């Protein structure tokens, strides 16, 4: 479940993450991207690993999420 007790810096990062996931996998639907990240557990993974993941590039993160979605059969719109 999404942690409501996170820093502003991490929240900014997560908003960016929602935006790139929405653009890539959910036809720009940010609500669908957010819900999916929370439901499949990626939200907590990226919050918990912010210190490492925030320095990764967009393409790396998109590829990582794509692999996760495929491996866990997560349904996307794209």
- The global form is globular
Order of helices and strands: HHHHH
Instruction: Report low-confidence residues grouped into runs of 5 or more.
Output: none
Largest sheet: none
The share of residues in extended strands comes to: under 5%
Number of domains: 1
Give your account of this protein's structure.
With 78 residues, this protein is an all-alpha fold. It has helices spanning 8-25, 30-40, 42-48, 50-53, 58-71. The protein has one domain (8-71).
Please give a quick description of this structure:
The chain is mainly alpha-helical. The protein has helices spanning 8-25, 30-40, 42-48, 50-53, 58-71.
Record the SSE blueprint:
Layout lengths: L7 H18 L4 H11 L1 H7 L1 H4 L4 H14 L7
Helix pairs in contact: 1-2, 1-5
Q: Which terms would index this structure?
A:
0% strand; 78 residues; single chain; 69% helix; globular; mainly alpha
């Amino acid at each position: 479940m999404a942690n409501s007790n996170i820093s502003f810096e991490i929240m900014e990062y997560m908003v960016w993450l929602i935006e790139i996931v929405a653009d890539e996998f959910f036809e720009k639907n940010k609500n669908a991207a957010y819900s999916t990240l929370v439901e499949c557990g990626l939200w907590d993974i990226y919050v918990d690993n912010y210190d490492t993941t925030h320095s990764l590039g967009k393409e790396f993160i998109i590829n990582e999420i794509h692999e996760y979605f495929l491996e866990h059969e997560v349904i996307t719109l794209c």
